[in-house]
Amino acid sequence: MEPIETLQQEAQAKIQSAASLSELNELRVLYLGKKGPVQELMKGMKDLPKEEKPIFGQKVNQLKQLLSSMIEDKKVELEKKEMEAKIENEKIDITLPGRSPVLGNAHPLNLVKQELEDLFIGLGYQVIEGNDIVDDLYCFERANIPKDHPARDMQDSLYIDQNTLLGTHTTAIQMMVLEKSAPNLPIKVVCPGKVYRRDDDDATHSHQFMQMEGLVIGEKVTLSDLKGTLEFMAKKLFGQDRQIRFRPSYFPFTEPSVEVDVTCHICNGKGCPTCKGTGWIEILGAGEVHPNVLKMAGYDPEKCSGFAFGVGIERVAMLKYGIDDIRHFYTNDKRFSETFKRFD
């Protein structure tokens, strides 16, 4: 029995000290394989006396079962340690700050457009957008601009054919809204969009720019309602200390018509080079909707009235952000666009 005990002590020591699954597998092959010492012991039984063979065989089988059990237990232990080591190595520290993606900058025209839309939605207006290509009927005739009006001249408008053109103002959207809504009241809409003119580009002019026009139709809507609305808009856009004033003007689709000025944001109305010493800066045109416009859309001007106004989004953005050249909006200069960082 001495060889069995010696082999058992040797194998137990090596199995207990195994540091990896590969090392443990080598020990399994070494001791329990077909050419291993345990198998050699079984082969040696033939040389023993007959009466000793059963006891010897029993002891060898017990050794084989013991080593097999020890190897399986050690295997479970080593697998657990390897899994724990793997988890530790692959652990993610969730307390580390995340990597922020690089975001594009909001374009100043989109900033102003969004600000205006939010402002008027808060006042109960609907935002209605239209197409860049419009019918002559809605762009001019329904806006009380007759066939011989200078605005129809090819030097101002970009016609596609005799009846369609690139919209010269977003009034066309308003005229379609009026026709579609008639005779229901009230109407409160703002209409943002791109407009096109036959114009030479310079620091303050562009052949394509953005407008937002507003239209309100209801009972007993007056110029004082218009002034209150535009004063609220000016204070929201340029600051609570801004004031506005009306100057008489002429537009075919409004009567009376006014040009609207806001106190200069640079000198606060005292006079400076920006406002040419007047203390005021023109920002938009407006007026009460012309009775002819109401009649053509199916409304009775004796029973309802309204006002309309048109804001140049580039004009507002230039004043609001101190931009001195309208071409900056379209030249895709990264240094310019990065001025308007996102904060969300």
Secondary-structure topology with pairs:
Elements: H1 2-17, H2 21-32, H3 37-43, H4 53-89, H5 108-122, E1 126-127, E2 133-135, H6 136-139, E3 158-159, E4 164-166, H7 171-181, E5 187-196, E6 208-218, H8 223-238, E7 244-251, E8 254-263, E9 280-289, H9 291-297, E10 305-312, H10 313-321, H11 334-337
Parallel strand pairs: 1-5
Antiparallel strand pairs: 2-4, 3-4, 5-6, 6-10, 7-8, 8-9, 9-10
Organism: Faecalitalea cylindroides
Enzyme class: ligase
GO molecular function: ATP binding; catalytic activity, acting on a protein; magnesium ion binding; phenylalanine-tRNA ligase activity; transferase activity; tRNA binding
- Major beta sheet summary: 7 strands, mixed
How would you name the oligomeric state of the polypeptide chains in this document? single chain
**Percent range for β-strand residues:** 15-25%
Order of helical and strand elements: HHHHHEEHEEHEEHEEEHEHH
Question: For this structure, what is the CATH class of the largest domain?
Answer: Alpha Beta
Specify the helix fraction band.
40-55%
- Overall SS class: alpha+beta
Spatial arrangement of strands, main beta sheet: 1-5-6-10-9-8-7
Overall pLDDT, averaged?
Answer: 86
Work out the count of structural domains: 2
Please give the CATH architecture of the largest domain: 2-Layer Sandwich
Catalytic activity: tRNA(Phe) + L-phenylalanine + ATP = L-phenylalanyl-tRNA(Phe) + AMP + diphosphate + H(+)
InterPro entries: aa-tRNA-synth_II (IPR006195), aa-tRNA-synth_II/BPL/LPL (IPR045864), Phe-tRNA-synth_IIc_asu (IPR004529), Phe-tRNA_ligase_II_N (IPR004188), Phe_tRNA_ligase_alpha1_bac (IPR022911), Phenylalanyl-tRNA_Synthase (IPR002319), tRNA-bd_arm (IPR010978)
Subcellular location: Cytoplasm
EC number: 6.1.1.20
